[in-house]
Amino acid sequence: MATIIKAANSCKNIPWQNQPEGNHDPMWRYSENPIINRNPLKGVARIFNSAVVPYEGEFIGVFRVESNSTIPHLRVGRSKNGIDWTIEEKPIDFWSEDKVLWNPNYAYDPRVIPIEDFYYVVWCTDFYGPTVGVARTKDFKHFERIENAFLPFNRNGVLFPRRIDGKYKLLSRPSDSGHTPFGDIFISESMDMIYWGKHRHVMEKGGSGWWQNLKIGSGPSPIETNEGWLLFYHGVTNTCNGFVYSIGCAILDIDEPSIVKYRSKDFCLTPERTYEEVGFVPNVVFPCAAITDADSGKIAIYYGAADSYVALAFTTIDIIIAYLKENHEIVGKDQKIGK
Ligand code: BMA
């Protein structure tokens, strides 16, 4: 049975390059990477780990920006083709429900997820240490911040693009307050995006390979397919030279996503290009967004490279699912509802 991406996720003008001749990798890079270079704006040192969605026939995104202070904040960016970006001059202002400015002290690793009438932004925010911040917008001009999803410390909050059994679902990776040397992916649910509970374990670090033996964290919002939810995630290993971040993928059960159906034994993409291996933090590929075209099965993945650049990689639903099934392994209790 061919794998089908659900039709809701159709972007006809998805940024795209065919798989290069002779390339048999599960993902291939855009030949003109990185798409956002260093010092892209006055006073901005780096933009990376950013989230992009199709919007009104073009593209819009929330970008992780580090100005010369090196404190990360979020800005809106716009693009006609998903490749050439204009980033706003100012950080996003977040407003509370009662219209008071409620800006985070720092903000990083955003994901943007359209659900029903809103685009939700989830990011790592400061709340006496890192946790998952949540806001929503309709027009990318006014952002209403709602309650933080969790107590500290937590990161890599990623919403599913629709309710499951009537509930919003949020993946996260409980952590410590620093450069966490551990971490599994968990899932929580909510009726209202405010109160989160019924927490379950989804996936643990580890496996037979080393690339994901230290910690793992969700990447883009899961993609709905007839096989289940396709989740791209980052897997981290520790080396003499520090952490190395690679990209892996998994399929989660469509109705009970705490159950992992398939999980890649080997990475899909690992730092190999200079812009991934050399930068503010070397050896990092960190996916935050995926755009899909249901008709053609094309998938474009936006990832941060070396905490310095935004880069783009491609795959198709057939190629990634074939890779996943050939390279599948069960780790620990991944196939159980993680109670
Ligand atoms: C993680 C996050 C990411 C970053 C990665 C590598 O803890 O902070 O934003 O890309 O470390 O530095």
Q: How would you describe this protein?
A:
Helix content is 4%, strand content 45%. It has 339 residues and is mostly beta strands. Strands 6-10-9-8-7 form a five-stranded mixed sheet, with no helix packed on it. Strands 15, 16, 17, 18 and 19 form a five-stranded antiparallel sheet that branches. A four-stranded antiparallel sheet has the order 1-22-21-20. The protein is globular, with a radius of gyration of 18 Å. The mean pLDDT is 96. It binds beta-D-mannopyranose.
Descriptive labels:
339 residues; mainly beta; five-stranded mixed sheet; 2 helices; 4% helix; 45% strand; binds beta-D-mannopyranose
Overall structural class, as computed from helix and strand content, comes to mainly beta
The overall average pLDDT, rounded, is: 96
Widest sheet, order of strands: 6-10-9-8-7
How are helices and strands ordered from N to C?
A: EEEEEEEEEEEEEEEEEEEHEEEH
The largest pleated sheet is described as:
5 strands, mixed
Uncertain residue ranges: none
Helix count from the secondary structure assignment: 2
The residue fraction in helices comes out at under 10%
**Principal-axis shape:** globular
| Fraction in beta strands | 35-45%
Identify every distinct bound molecule in the structure, by name, code or SMILES.
Answer: beta-D-mannopyranose
